[in-house]
Amino acid sequence: SGKIMTFRVHLEGASGNSRVQKRDKCTMTICIFYFPGTLPASWTPMNDQEYLEVPLQFGSEEYSKVANEFRTSCQNIAIDRIQNLKLWESYSVRKKAVDRKYPNMVNERTLYHGTTCEIAEQVKKLGFNRSFCGRNALSYGRGTYFAKNAQYSCDNKYSSPSDQGYKYMFQARVITGKLCLGNHLMKVPSPVDEKDSTNLCDCSVNNVSNPSIFVIFCDDGAYPEYLITFNKKEQRK
């Protein structure tokens, strides 16, 4: 999906001989086709909107796919697709840069981030924000945390229920790229090579060989693709 940007340029110049000159004026319209990047095929047309929140229909193919990947002992109440053009463009630029750097690696993963109702509203519009880190444990770095398994993020410590008992979780696209082992003092990922302190890994994890917890330190390194609103099933005794 692209945009046509139109500019009107006013030109003015002189013509004639040195004794008699007249001013010539004209207006030129220039149209430039701006291509911000490929939007997901599943997105509903935006119609010049910057933000759109699309409730998925229960039983639809897209709803079932997200719900099946969620796979926990939770009842899905609602799944909303988040279409935020500004966040998507920022994320796409970073992902392309990482893909160029590591062309033979899988640089993107689908991960989960549990949160509160209030913070979920912020994330939908403004994206993930490292300033919220510190609400929970910081064992693997001072960034934004994501889990491979939704069950982990379902814990009340990460997804505390609202007054109505609803819990909130994002299914996110996350640029994981090159991994490093995290620690509680880490503010940025470790260098890929100790000889170059500016060439950093993209993500810290709890276990490099078999990671289940991922921490990113760049706010545009993740995109909140779906917001899942749910409640926990009561455990039978």
TrEMBL record:
Its EC number is 2.4.2.-. The keyword Transferase applies. It holds the Pfam family PARP. The keyword Transferase applies. It comes from the Eukaryota. Residues 39-237 form the PARP catalytic domain. PROSITE patterns: PARP_CATALYTIC. One of its GO terms (biological process) is protein poly-ADP-ribosylation. Keywords: Glycosyltransferase, NAD, Nucleus, Transferase. Its main location: nucleus. One of its GO terms (cellular component) is cytoplasm. One of its GO terms (molecular function) is transcription corepressor activity. It is an enzyme of class 2 (transferase). It is found in: Nucleus. Gene3D superfamilies: 3.90.228.10. Belongs to the ARTD/PARP family. PANTHER family: PARP/ZINC FINGER CCCH TYPE DOMAIN CONTAINING PROTEIN (PTHR14453), POLY [ADP-RIBOSE] POLYMERASE (PTHR14453:SF101). This is Poly [ADP-ribose] polymerase. The lineage of its organism: Eukaryota, Metazoa, Chordata, Craniata, Vertebrata.
